[in-house]
């Protein structure tokens, strides 16, 4: 049957208003136009939908049954329209985020939680994986965007830098606990928890501490493990401030380090895979959050 949406709209409105006049006013068309649509619907379906009794029309049992099916369809369309509106308002949709573990287990996930509270119908997936896998996930479209250790030599990705100053973490009863800031000379002869061997961050640390006698007692690729080791009194370390923040109530203290050592990261998007307005909003708001964030 070649039933038109206009026929269905006219039928539904006649049923809801109870008259041709009411339907014409609701649809902003003439009464004859509504009558023609109803007649054409009856012709198309082979059903008698209304009985004419003087100036009134009375729906038949077939019309009542048909209305139930029409209403189900309209509810579906309404839901689609509501979802489209939610997408436009950025209150629905999904985000797939890949991030290096230091961020996925600290500032990024905390921000995502607050972002989710404001948008409870948005589904957010966060994968904490090594930086080289973050790059692969973004490049292949498995993640909408990601955050990784920088710099990158991957061609074809849009890269946004987030420079961040590394901090020294110490056991809370350490001899340097009273210092406002720590310099390389202050760390002479200290036991160290080494972090990220073979990474650019590790080379920056080694350059800053060149000529300073120190013992690297334990090593780990992850800043959270370094924080835990320092909390257990193994030694001191240099880490990103976001990881340090997570352990400030667990037996460590964090101090600014001079000179500046970049413990930052990069945001990644692939121009080969279109990103939603929601993803752009998340990345922008996260950047603003990072810029305003302070170690407390």
Secondary structure topology:
Layout: H1 5-17, H2 20-27, H3 31-45, E1 50-53, E2 56-59, H4 61-89, E3 92-99, H5 101-104, H6 107-118, E4 121-128, H7 131-140, E5 145-148, E6 158-162, E7 167-171, E8 190-195, H8 200-208, E9 214-220, H9 223-231, E10 237-239, H10 241-245, E11 252-256, E12 265-269, H11 277-292
Parallel strand pairs: 3-4, 3-5, 8-9
Antiparallel strand pairs: 1-2, 5-12, 6-12, 7-10, 7-11
Helix pairs in contact: 1-2, 1-3, 1-4, 2-3, 6-11
Describe this structure in words.
- There is one protein chain.
- The protein has 296 residues and is α/β, with parallel strands linked by helices.
- The chain folds into three domains: 5-88, Arc Repressor Mutant, subunit A (Orthogonal Bundle); 95-158 and 271-292, Periplasmic binding protein-like II (D-Maltodextrin-Binding Protein, domain 2), CATH 3.40.190.10; 167-256, D-Maltodextrin-Binding Protein, domain 2 (3-Layer(aba) Sandwich).
- It has helices spanning 5-17, 20-27, 31-45, 61-89, 101-104, 107-118, 131-140, 200-208, 223-231, 241-245, 277-292; strands at 50-53, 56-59, 92-99, 121-128, 145-148, 158-162, 167-171, 190-195, 214-220, 237-239, 252-256, 265-269.
- The chain is rod-shaped.
- The relative contact order is 0.13.
Short structural summary:
The chain is of the alpha/beta class.
Q: Helix share of residues?
A: 40-55%
> What is the CA-based Rg, rounded?
32 Å
How much is the average pLDDT? Answer: 90
- Counting DSSP E segments of at least 2 residues, the number of strands comes to 12
Structural class, judged by helices and strands? alpha/beta
The helix count comes to 11
What is the architecture of the largest domain at the second tier of CATH?
Answer: 3-Layer(aba) Sandwich
Unreliable residue runs:
none
How widely separated are the two ends?
69 Å
**Looking at CATH, which topology of the largest domain would you report?**
D-Maltodextrin-Binding Protein, domain 2
By CATH's scheme, which homologous superfamily of the largest domain applies? Periplasmic binding protein-like II
For the largest sheet, list the strands in their spatial order. 4-3-5-12-6
Shape: rod-shaped
The proportion of residues in beta strands is: 15-25%
Biggest sheet architecture? 5 strands, mixed
Quickly count the domains: 3
The top-level CATH class of the largest domain is Alpha Beta
Order of helices and strands: HHHEEHEHHEHEEEEHEHEHEEH
């Amino acid at each position: 049957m070649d039933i038109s949406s206009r026929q269905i709209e006219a039928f539904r409105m006649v049923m809801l208003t109870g008259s041709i006049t009411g339907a014409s006013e609701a649809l902003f068309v003439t009464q004859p136009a509504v009558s023609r649509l109803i007649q054409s619907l009856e012709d198309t379906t082979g059903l008698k939908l209304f009985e004419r009794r003087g100036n009134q029309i009375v729906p038949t049992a077939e019309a009542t049954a048909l209305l139930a099916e029409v209403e189900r369809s309209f509810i579906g369309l309404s839901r689609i329209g509501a979802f489209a509106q939610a997408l436009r308002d950025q209150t629905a949709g999904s985000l797939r985020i890949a991030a290096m573990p230091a961020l996925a287990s600290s500032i990024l996930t905390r921000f995502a939680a607050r972002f989710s509270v404001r948008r409870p119908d948005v589904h957010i997936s966060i994968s904490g994986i090594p930086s080289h896998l973050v790059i692969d996930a973004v490049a292949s479209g498995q993640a909408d965007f990601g955050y990784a250790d920088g710099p990158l030599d991957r061609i074809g990705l849009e890269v946004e830098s987030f420079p961040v100053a590394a901090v020294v973490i110490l056991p809370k009863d350490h001899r340097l606990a009273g210092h406002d800031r720590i310099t390389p000379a202050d760390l002479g002869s200290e036991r160290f928890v080494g972090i990220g061997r073979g990474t650019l961050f590790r080379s920056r640390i080694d350059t800053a501490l060149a000529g300073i006698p120190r013992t690297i007692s334990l090593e780990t690729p992850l800043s959270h493990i370094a924080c835990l080791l320092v909390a257990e009194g193994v030694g001191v370390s240099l880490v990103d401030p976001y990881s340090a923040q997570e352990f400030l109530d667990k037996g460590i203290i964090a101090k600014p380090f001079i000179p500046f050592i970049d413990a930052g990261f990069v945001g990644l998007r692939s121009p080969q895979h279109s990103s939603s307005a929601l993803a752009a909003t998340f990345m922008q708001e996260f950047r603003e959050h990072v810029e305003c964030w302070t170690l407390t």
